[in-house]
Amino acid sequence: MRFSLFPIAVMLMPLAEIAGFVIVGRAVGLWATLGLVILSVFVGIALLRLQGPGILRRIAVESRNGAVPGRDIIHGAMIVIAAFLLIIPGFLSDILGILLFIPLVRDLAWKHLSRRIVILGSAGPFGNAAQCGPASREGGSGPVVDLDESDYHREANKKNSPWSDRKQIED
């Protein structure tokens, strides 16, 4: 979905949820519809409590082994989002939440997101930061230039300083 369509989709979501309530309510009745909504809240809370510690354990193991747990962090975030979608009343949000709990769907989302996300790890024992994402595949992000404060501060009285506020025209 294009970013410019995202606000429109967010505004139309409540209307779609209300339509979903009406359709399901006509098909199964009022009490069954309310029961399904309450059941989805409890399922969302239970799945969040069951999946959360496992994700945290995998992130800790990956970190201890020296790897950057980017995939596990994204999967954990998707599980949290999926649980919140189940907790929010509505059948369309429940469908999206259930889809995000499926590992295959999360892997497809990770493949799509991994091209746009760069995850940097902290410096390891050899001084290099672990990195995954597009910058690591392209051979790094470029040269590092280390400047002192005296290299880039502004001098108001210096006529041809590139850091001065006023540009001087040379004769």
Describe the structure.
By secondary structure, this protein is mainly alpha-helical. The relative contact order is 0.08. The protein is built from 7 helices and 2 strands, in the order H-H-H-H-H-E-E-H-H. The chain is 63% helix and 5% strand. The longest helix is centred in the N-terminal third of the chain and has 35 residues, at 30-64. The protein is elongated. The protein has a domain at 3-121. Helix 2 runs antiparallel to helix 3 (70-87). A two-stranded antiparallel ribbon has the order 1-2. The chain has helices spanning 6-28, 30-64, 70-87, 91-101, 103-114, 134-137, 149-152; strands spanning 119-123, 129-132.
Give the topology.
Elements: H1 6-28, H2 30-64, H3 70-87, H4 91-101, H5 103-114, E1 119-123, E2 129-132, H6 134-137, H7 149-152
Antiparallel strand pairs: 1-2
Features:
single chain; 171 residues; mainly alpha; two-stranded antiparallel ribbon
In short:
This protein is mainly alpha-helical and 171 residues long.
